[in-house]
Design a protein that fits this description.
Helices cover 42% and strands 19% of the residues. Helix 3 links the parallel strand 4 (79-83) and strand 5. The protein has a 5-stranded mixed β-sheet with strand order 1-5-4-3-2. Strands 7-6-10-9-8 form a 5-stranded antiparallel β-sheet. Strands 11-15-14 form a 3-stranded antiparallel β-sheet. The chain has 3 domains: 5-123, HprK N-terminal domain-like (Udp-n-acetylmuramoylalanyl-d-glutamate--2,6- Diaminopimelate Ligase, Chain: A, domain 1, 3-Layer(aba) Sandwich), CATH 3.40.1390.20; 150-264, Beta-Lactamase (2-Layer Sandwich), CATH 3.30.450; 302-392, Alpha-Beta Plaits. The chain is of the alpha+beta class. It has helices at 5-9, 62-74, 93-102, 115-148, 154-165, 186-191, 194-201, 248-287, 291-298, 342-356, 379-392; strands at residues 17-20, 31-34, 48-52, 79-83, 106-109, 168-172, 178-182, 208-211, 222-228, 236-242, 310-316, 329-330, 336-337, 362-366, 369-375. It contains 11 helices and 15 strands.
Length: 393
Amino acid sequence: MPPTLASLVHHSALKLAVLAGEDRLDTPVRWAHVSELVDPVPWMDGGELLLITAMKIDAEDPEGMRAYVRRLVRAGVVGLGFAVGVNYEQVPRALVEAAEGEGLPLLEVPRRTPFLAISKAVSAAIAADQYRAVTAGFEAQRELTRAAVGAEGPAALLSRLAAHLDGWAALYDASGAVVAAAPDWAARRAARLTRDVERLRERPAPATAVLGTDPAEEGADRVELQSLGSGRRARGVLAVGTAAPLGTAERYAVQSAIALLTLTTERSRALQAAEQRLGAAVLRMLLAGEPDHARAVAGDLYGGLLDAPFRMLVAEAVTDAGTPSGEEGTEPSGEPTAAPDPLGVLADAVETAAGRVAEAVLVVPDGERLIVLAPDGGAAVVACAAHARAIEA
């Protein structure tokens, strides 16, 4: 927890007394700042505890104090500390009433408590909070790493991540389909974000999006989407949902999950490239009339694909005249979109469809063509047909 006005009041060495705003002492303090200016607002960022001795202001002027306090509140000052025994023996009533009227916490600072002691207390509390966040982040990273390399892989990682965030997490594949979610109920929530995920996938990776919700909506959550992959085209998307914006420790956990999932997807791409080279060799043997050699090379990799009736599908890329191949487009918002890769999209769709039903499939890029060998009438063939219909529509 960051320091609050309450934690400073309860600090035994400071001896601070509350004169106004007791109901707002749980407000976090970003910094303690000393300023004797009549108008310190231009030098304030918001969230400060302002410390004064009233050296240059008339703290007994009711109208002046109302204007002074009003300026501080509008600038985001969270509290005012007034040192007694310097210019005033006690806090003037005009200032107390002005603080009460604006709801600004007013603290009396005794003569024996230097402002430096208050600044040190705030600084130490902030440093301790940051240290706790970093420590928690490293611990989360260790837990997520152990989960990622375990037997359950991404599913276990998402479960640990959701627990750290006190929220939910979901992983989408390259086609935008939900492949894992934690807790179990989060799969339904993640499925409702398909369109947002699709828009994110159209942008060059890495890309992020924050989905706000109506604050008045009961049970509303805050969702962050992060594309995965080091290439131009996203290989997946991570979604996390929480009741409030992520804190420092939670942010560390999310970034660790992104790194681990990206490594997983990139490793999968390397294995996929090796499989494609083997698949190309198998395909050449089939086309050369050497099915026995093709089966021997394929071994168990393609799950008996070559022993059952299969269909060969050939797709060719057709460049849209309005969007030159290899160039980026732009969204209406002005953000760049990834260069179109129709064959890559088709390959993802086919492999995803086959993977969902544990169906063997051979996908081989061949220049401007994509060659697919799949069980006749299987999920991969159905996915190809659906993709073709979507293009023609």
